[in-house]
């Protein structure tokens, strides 16, 4: 009897950890990232308030759940002893135990990784792996295809769309730019200035790149190095747009490394 009670307590503790425990840890981590401003490394700024509000609701529910007796989570079986054989009951317990153990290991690993590993932005290697043969279109692309938009507010994403879709590249000749991003390889002596652009969260992040090259580009820049480029847009004879830099400064990764 004592052994059965101890087993029941262990199962109840495991069930509570998988439910309330993991949810509480995730909620605390979310609020901590939100307060420190690091939640934008994972989701867009527009959804930070929603994630934090959801985390608060989870914490309130977790506190409320503490009034439940230990093991109450498992009091939901409607089958009586006469309705299932001992063999069926044994198989059901084995399957439940396997599901709990496997789910618990995976979920606990994810949560513990979130606690131990420091928040980090997406890497340059990931950006290069997500870069396809066709340039993705980002915010402002519709304005660009209609005509020459107001480029004073353009980021790397908008300029990448302009470089890829413009049918009158000469219209952008001489436009002054100041852009921030990290270095990825390009053909020849040029480099690509790259920025990850996200719509909702890092899962949908796509790299946007503009080519930087010319006499103003000197020195070596390692892949992944963050730089601030000031210069002028140039249209080459073949219609290719590039940025001719007047100054290139190495900088630290900004607090918010993404564009939206």
UniProtKB/TrEMBL annotation:
Pfam families linked to this entry: DUF1980_C
Superkingdom per UniProt: Bacteria
Ranges that cross the membrane: 12-35, 47-70, 98-117
Keyword Transmembrane: yes
Ranges for domain DUF1980: 167-260
Keyword Secreted assigned: no
Keywords, sorted A to Z: Membrane, Transmembrane, Transmembrane helix
PANTHER family per the UniProt record, alphabetical: UPF0703 PROTEIN YCGQ
Name of the protein in its database record: DUF1980 domain-containing protein
Organism annotation: Microbacterium esteraromaticum
């Amino acid at each position: 009897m004592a052994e059965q009670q101890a087993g029941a307590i262990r199962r109840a503790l495991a069930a509570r950890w998988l439910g309330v425990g993991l949810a509480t840890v995730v909620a605390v981590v979310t609020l901590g990232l939100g307060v420190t401003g690091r939640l934008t490394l994972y989701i867009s700024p527009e959804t930070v308030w929603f994630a934090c509000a959801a985390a608060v609701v989870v914490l309130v529910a977790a506190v409320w759940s503490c009034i439940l007796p230990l093991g109450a989570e498992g009091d939901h079986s409607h089958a009586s002893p006469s309705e299932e054989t001992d063999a069926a009951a044994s198989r059901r317990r084995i399957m439940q135990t396997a599901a709990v153990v496997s789910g618990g290991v995976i979920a606990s690993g994810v949560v513990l990784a979130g606690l131990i590993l420091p928040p980090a932005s997406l890497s340059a290697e990931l950006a290069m792996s997500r870069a396809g043969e066709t340039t993705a279109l980002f915010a402002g692309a519709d304005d660009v295809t209609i005509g020459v938009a107001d480029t004073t507010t353009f980021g790397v994403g908008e300029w990448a769309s302009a470089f890829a879709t413009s049918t009158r590249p000469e219209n952008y000749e001489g436009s002054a730019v100041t852009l921030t991003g990290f270095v990825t390889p390009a053909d020849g002596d040029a480099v690509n200035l790259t920025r990850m652009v996200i719509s909702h969260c890092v899962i949908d992040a796509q790299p946007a790149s503009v080519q930087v090259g010319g006499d103003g580009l000197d020195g070596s820049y390692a892949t992944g190095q963050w730089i601030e480029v000031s210069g002028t847009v140039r249209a080459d004879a073949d219609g290719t747009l590039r940025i001719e830099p007047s100054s290139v400064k190495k900088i630290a990764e900004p607090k918010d490394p993404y564009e939206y």
